[in-house]
Amino acid sequence: MAIPGVGIIGDRINPGFKTTKALLEAEDIPGLQALAVRQVQSGAWCIDVTIGPRGYKDSHFLTEVIKALQAAVDVPLCFDYPDKAVQEVCLKAYDPAKAKGRKPLVNSLAETRLEMLDLFKIRPFQVVLMASERLEDGAAKSNKLTSEVLGVAKRMSAILTRDHGLSRGDMFVDVTIHSLISDLEGLTKMALEAIHTISNDPELKGVHIMGGLTNIGNMMPPIKFDGVSLRQMVENAFLTLAVPLGFDTIMGTPWNNFQILQEDNVVLKTLKDFNELQGLNAMRRLRQLWSQKQPEAGGMTARQ
User: What percent of the residues of the chain are helix, what percent strand, and what percent coil, each to the nearest 5?
Assistant: First the structure.
């Protein structure tokens, strides 16, 4: 289900999903094409692409995958590699004409990877800005404060507009969504605060704000609430809080039933409580959510 004003970048061309890993290992090009088509038919305006570690050493197969995907769908591709050399292969393989003239996305540019700015010499592209780390005293530092995320977004936006002529609409700030079940540091709350702060900063007016939504439900128990998996419900709870703050781009599985939850939804209430707690108290509140329910199958849910 579409949420008005929120776009979806399909995330399934990724060996982190077991089914996609099998397609890549078998070099099943028609299967990958079908997966891309299904994502577009389910509402994705763009397809994220990674073939995993193989992309670093097998440029031929990476190029083959990109060309095959572009033969199957006419939406932009988002190349998911934090490496200049691999991104160069991707950008050279990409044909804008097969995406109705639209630019690809480079995922992701970081303050710690400024050498990737040289890629603009190959062709114009949109940028996913990774706001989870900053450059400090010549070293990469993890961002755990809203002010740190905002600082990276503003500095990188200034560089891209001033030196490379990008519009803010060509920038997607990734606030990084962490797995809820391992969030002992309040990073989910921080991400929501960062969304609000970035959205309201006049220097960043017009940028898109995004995150990998699939991450938040990793390792959740395989139980359902009102017929919906807990993992999906947690994704929707996050969206319910994030979209009004300015979150406008989901990196996720397009056929998931994305929707805004009612205020009395038990999972939404739990997420709100979780965000006001810290450490083990937050974990205890989360586990209360499923303590009275029996799992439908053994184990914890992971990417399929």
Answer: 50, 15, 35
Q: Which homologous superfamily does the CATH classification assign to the domain defined by 7-290?
A: Dihydropteroate synthase-like (3.20.20.20)
Show the tokens assigned to 55. 């992309």
- Structural contact between residues 190 and 145, judged by C-beta atoms closer than 8 angstroms: yes
Phi and psi angles of residue 8, each rounded to the nearest 5 degrees, phi first = -125, 125
Q: What is the mean pLDDT of residues 286-295?
A: 81
CA distance 202 to 23: 44
Confidence of residue 299 (pLDDT cuts 50, 70, 90): very low
122-158: pLDDT as tens digits: 999 999 999 999 988 888 999 999 999 999 999 999 9
Q: Which residue, 59, 94, 77, is CA-closest to 11?
A: 77
Quote the DSSP letter at residue 296.
Answer: S
| Helix 187-199 / helix 230-242 crossing angle, nearest 10 deg | 30
Cα-based distances in Å from 268 to 192, 215, 223, 235, 275? 14, 17, 16, 10, 11
Q: CA 82, CA 263: separation in Å to the nearest integer?
A: 38
Q: 87 with 119: CB under 8 angstroms?
A: yes
Residues 207 and 279: beta-carbon distance below 8 Å: no
Give residue limits of the domains in the chain. Answer: 7-290
Enter the tokens of residue 130.
Answer: 């990774």
Element (H, E) at 101: none
Tally of CB atoms within 10 A around 161 = 15
CA torsion, points 147, 179, 65, 24, in degrees to nearest 10? 160
- Token pair, residue 56, equals 């670093």
